[in-house]
Amino acid sequence: MEEIFQFIVKLIVPIVMAVIALCSVLKGKLSTAQKRSLEYERISKLSYDLYKNHNDESLKKISEDFGYAAITKDNFLTPEQRKALVKSVEPTKDLEKFLKAKDLVEIHTSPLKPLAFKWKNKKFNSNVKYYISQAIRGFLYFIGGAIASLPLTYDQVMPVYITQRLVKQPDYIVVLLGGYFFALGFGIAYFSLSSGVKLVIAKELIEKHQDGHKN
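Now predict its structure.
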Protein backbone atom coordinates (compact mmCIF):
# COMPACT_ATOMS: atom_id res chain seq x y z
CA MET A 1 0.00 0.00 0.00
CA GLU A 2 2.80 2.38 0.91
CA GLU A 3 4.45 1.73 -2.47
CA ILE A 4 1.24 2.69 -4.28
CA PHE A 5 0.99 5.89 -2.26
CA GLN A 6 4.60 6.82 -3.00
CA PHE A 7 4.08 6.13 -6.70
CA ILE A 8 1.03 8.40 -6.85
CA VAL A 9 2.81 11.14 -4.94
CA LYS A 10 5.72 10.97 -7.39
CA LEU A 11 3.25 11.47 -10.22
CA ILE A 12 1.32 14.32 -8.61
CA VAL A 13 4.09 16.41 -7.06
CA PRO A 14 5.91 17.26 -10.34
CA ILE A 15 2.64 18.30 -11.99
CA VAL A 16 1.53 20.41 -9.03
CA MET A 17 4.94 22.07 -8.87
CA ALA A 18 4.89 22.74 -12.61
CA VAL A 19 1.40 24.29 -12.41
CA ILE A 20 2.44 26.49 -9.48
CA ALA A 21 5.60 27.59 -11.27
CA LEU A 22 3.70 28.36 -14.47
CA CYS A 23 1.05 30.37 -12.61
CA SER A 24 3.81 32.31 -10.86
CA VAL A 25 5.51 33.08 -14.17
CA LEU A 26 2.26 34.24 -15.78
CA LYS A 27 1.38 36.38 -12.77
CA GLY A 28 4.90 37.80 -12.77
CA LYS A 29 4.66 38.69 -16.46
CA LEU A 30 1.36 40.51 -16.00
CA SER A 31 2.64 42.36 -12.95
CA THR A 32 5.89 43.29 -14.69
CA ALA A 33 4.08 44.55 -17.79
CA GLN A 34 1.79 46.72 -15.67
CA LYS A 35 4.68 48.13 -13.63
CA ARG A 36 6.66 48.77 -16.81
CA SER A 37 3.76 50.64 -18.38
CA LEU A 38 3.33 52.84 -15.29
CA GLU A 39 7.07 53.54 -15.15
CA TYR A 40 7.14 54.50 -18.84
CA GLU A 41 4.15 56.78 -18.26
CA ARG A 42 5.95 58.48 -15.37
CA ILE A 43 9.12 59.00 -17.41
CA SER A 44 7.09 60.34 -20.34
CA LYS A 45 5.37 62.93 -18.14
CA LEU A 46 8.65 63.91 -16.47
CA SER A 47 10.40 64.31 -19.81
CA TYR A 48 7.58 66.41 -21.20
CA ASP A 49 7.62 68.69 -18.12
CA LEU A 50 11.36 69.18 -18.57
CA TYR A 51 10.82 69.88 -22.27
CA LYS A 52 8.31 72.63 -21.47
CA ASN A 53 10.74 74.20 -19.00
CA HIS A 54 13.88 73.94 -21.11
CA ASN A 55 12.53 73.67 -24.67
CA ASP A 56 14.94 70.80 -25.37
CA GLU A 57 13.73 68.82 -28.42
CA SER A 58 15.59 65.71 -27.27
CA LEU A 59 13.45 65.66 -24.13
CA LYS A 60 10.33 65.93 -26.28
CA LYS A 61 11.46 62.91 -28.29
CA ILE A 62 12.10 60.93 -25.11
CA SER A 63 8.66 61.88 -23.84
CA GLU A 64 7.05 60.67 -27.07
CA ASP A 65 8.99 57.42 -27.15
CA PHE A 66 8.15 56.53 -23.56
CA GLY A 67 4.55 57.61 -24.12
CA TYR A 68 4.18 55.15 -27.01
CA ALA A 69 5.94 52.47 -24.95
CA ALA A 70 3.51 53.06 -22.06
CA ILE A 71 0.51 52.71 -24.38
CA THR A 72 1.79 49.53 -26.03
CA LYS A 73 3.07 48.09 -22.70
CA ASP A 74 6.28 46.82 -24.25
CA ASN A 75 10.03 47.18 -24.20
CA PHE A 76 10.76 45.16 -27.34
CA LEU A 77 9.14 47.08 -30.21
CA THR A 78 10.95 49.71 -32.22
CA PRO A 79 9.64 53.31 -32.10
CA GLU A 80 8.34 52.87 -35.66
CA GLN A 81 6.45 49.70 -34.71
CA ARG A 82 4.89 51.37 -31.66
CA LYS A 83 3.74 54.37 -33.66
CA ALA A 84 2.35 52.18 -36.43
CA LEU A 85 0.35 50.16 -33.89
CA VAL A 86 -1.00 53.25 -32.14
CA LYS A 87 -1.90 54.93 -35.46
CA SER A 88 -3.95 51.96 -36.66
CA VAL A 89 -7.52 52.64 -37.75
CA GLU A 90 -8.69 50.61 -34.73
CA PRO A 91 -5.76 51.04 -32.31
CA THR A 92 -7.60 49.75 -29.24
CA LYS A 93 -8.67 46.47 -30.85
CA ASP A 94 -5.38 45.93 -32.66
CA LEU A 95 -3.32 46.70 -29.57
CA GLU A 96 -5.37 44.35 -27.40
CA LYS A 97 -5.08 41.54 -29.93
CA PHE A 98 -1.38 42.12 -30.49
CA LEU A 99 -0.64 41.94 -26.75
CA LYS A 100 -2.41 38.56 -26.65
CA ALA A 101 -0.68 37.16 -29.74
CA LYS A 102 2.72 38.91 -29.65
CA ASP A 103 4.51 35.56 -29.24
CA LEU A 104 3.15 34.50 -32.62
CA VAL A 105 3.25 37.63 -34.79
CA GLU A 106 5.59 40.52 -35.48
CA ILE A 107 4.92 44.01 -36.80
CA HIS A 108 6.22 45.12 -40.20
CA THR A 109 6.16 48.70 -41.46
CA SER A 110 6.98 50.25 -44.82
CA PRO A 111 6.17 53.48 -46.70
CA LEU A 112 3.53 51.67 -48.73
CA LYS A 113 2.24 49.57 -45.84
CA PRO A 114 2.29 51.52 -42.55
CA LEU A 115 1.12 48.53 -40.51
CA ALA A 116 1.26 44.82 -41.25
CA PHE A 117 1.55 41.67 -39.16
CA LYS A 118 3.47 38.52 -40.11
CA TRP A 119 3.91 35.12 -38.54
CA LYS A 120 7.06 34.60 -36.51
CA ASN A 121 6.83 30.92 -37.34
CA LYS A 122 6.72 30.84 -41.14
CA LYS A 123 5.02 27.44 -41.23
CA PHE A 124 1.71 29.16 -40.42
CA ASN A 125 1.89 30.95 -43.76
CA SER A 126 0.49 27.69 -45.07
CA ASN A 127 -3.23 27.39 -44.31
CA VAL A 128 -2.89 23.61 -44.34
CA LYS A 129 -0.27 23.64 -41.57
CA TYR A 130 -2.26 26.23 -39.66
CA TYR A 131 -5.42 24.13 -39.65
CA ILE A 132 -3.47 20.96 -38.86
CA SER A 133 -1.98 22.74 -35.83
CA GLN A 134 -5.45 23.85 -34.76
CA ALA A 135 -6.80 20.33 -35.24
CA ILE A 136 -4.05 18.94 -33.03
CA ARG A 137 -4.86 21.50 -30.35
CA GLY A 138 -8.56 20.65 -30.59
CA PHE A 139 -7.76 16.95 -30.24
CA LEU A 140 -5.56 17.60 -27.19
CA TYR A 141 -8.30 19.77 -25.70
CA PHE A 142 -10.82 16.91 -25.81
CA ILE A 143 -8.18 14.45 -24.57
CA GLY A 144 -7.52 16.77 -21.64
CA GLY A 145 -11.24 16.99 -20.91
CA ALA A 146 -11.55 13.21 -21.02
CA ILE A 147 -8.61 12.77 -18.63
CA ALA A 148 -10.02 15.39 -16.24
CA SER A 149 -13.36 13.59 -16.17
CA LEU A 150 -11.84 10.17 -15.46
CA PRO A 151 -12.58 10.34 -11.70
CA LEU A 152 -16.27 10.53 -12.58
CA THR A 153 -16.18 7.74 -15.15
CA TYR A 154 -13.94 5.06 -13.63
CA ASP A 155 -16.65 2.42 -13.92
CA GLN A 156 -17.36 3.19 -17.59
CA VAL A 157 -13.88 3.55 -19.08
CA MET A 158 -11.51 1.49 -16.94
CA PRO A 159 -11.15 -2.28 -17.05
CA VAL A 160 -13.02 -4.17 -14.36
CA TYR A 161 -9.89 -5.46 -12.63
CA ILE A 162 -8.63 -1.87 -12.15
CA THR A 163 -11.92 -0.59 -10.73
CA GLN A 164 -12.05 -3.57 -8.38
CA ARG A 165 -8.59 -2.69 -7.08
CA LEU A 166 -9.58 0.96 -6.68
CA VAL A 167 -12.59 0.00 -4.56
CA LYS A 168 -10.25 -1.76 -2.16
CA GLN A 169 -7.95 1.25 -1.78
CA PRO A 170 -8.27 3.78 1.07
CA ASP A 171 -10.26 6.89 0.28
CA TYR A 172 -7.20 9.17 0.31
CA ILE A 173 -5.57 7.08 -2.42
CA VAL A 174 -8.64 7.40 -4.63
CA VAL A 175 -8.80 11.14 -3.93
CA LEU A 176 -5.14 11.63 -4.78
CA LEU A 177 -5.51 9.66 -7.98
CA GLY A 178 -8.60 11.66 -8.92
CA GLY A 179 -6.76 14.91 -8.21
CA TYR A 180 -3.88 13.78 -10.39
CA PHE A 181 -6.13 13.00 -13.36
CA PHE A 182 -8.06 16.25 -12.94
CA ALA A 183 -4.91 18.40 -12.73
CA LEU A 184 -3.32 16.66 -15.70
CA GLY A 185 -6.44 16.82 -17.86
CA PHE A 186 -7.25 20.41 -16.93
CA GLY A 187 -3.69 21.49 -17.71
CA ILE A 188 -3.71 19.83 -21.13
CA ALA A 189 -7.16 21.22 -22.01
CA TYR A 190 -6.43 24.75 -20.78
CA PHE A 191 -3.13 25.19 -22.56
CA SER A 192 -4.44 23.63 -25.76
CA LEU A 193 -7.42 25.99 -25.76
CA SER A 194 -5.29 29.02 -24.87
CA SER A 195 -2.79 28.24 -27.61
CA GLY A 196 -5.56 27.73 -30.16
CA VAL A 197 -7.24 31.03 -29.27
CA LYS A 198 -3.93 32.89 -29.66
CA LEU A 199 -3.49 31.34 -33.11
CA VAL A 200 -6.96 32.53 -34.13
CA ILE A 201 -6.25 36.06 -32.87
CA ALA A 202 -2.91 36.15 -34.67
CA LYS A 203 -4.48 35.00 -37.95
CA GLU A 204 -7.21 37.65 -37.63
CA LEU A 205 -4.60 40.38 -37.16
CA ILE A 206 -2.59 39.24 -40.16
CA GLU A 207 -5.60 38.96 -42.46
CA LYS A 208 -7.06 42.28 -41.30
CA HIS A 209 -3.91 44.16 -42.36
CA GLN A 210 -3.11 42.27 -45.53
CA ASP A 211 -2.46 44.18 -48.77
CA GLY A 212 -5.59 45.87 -49.92
CA HIS A 213 -6.91 46.58 -46.44
CA LYS A 214 -7.28 50.26 -45.80
CA ASN A 215 -5.26 51.39 -42.77
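The radius of gyration is 25 Å.
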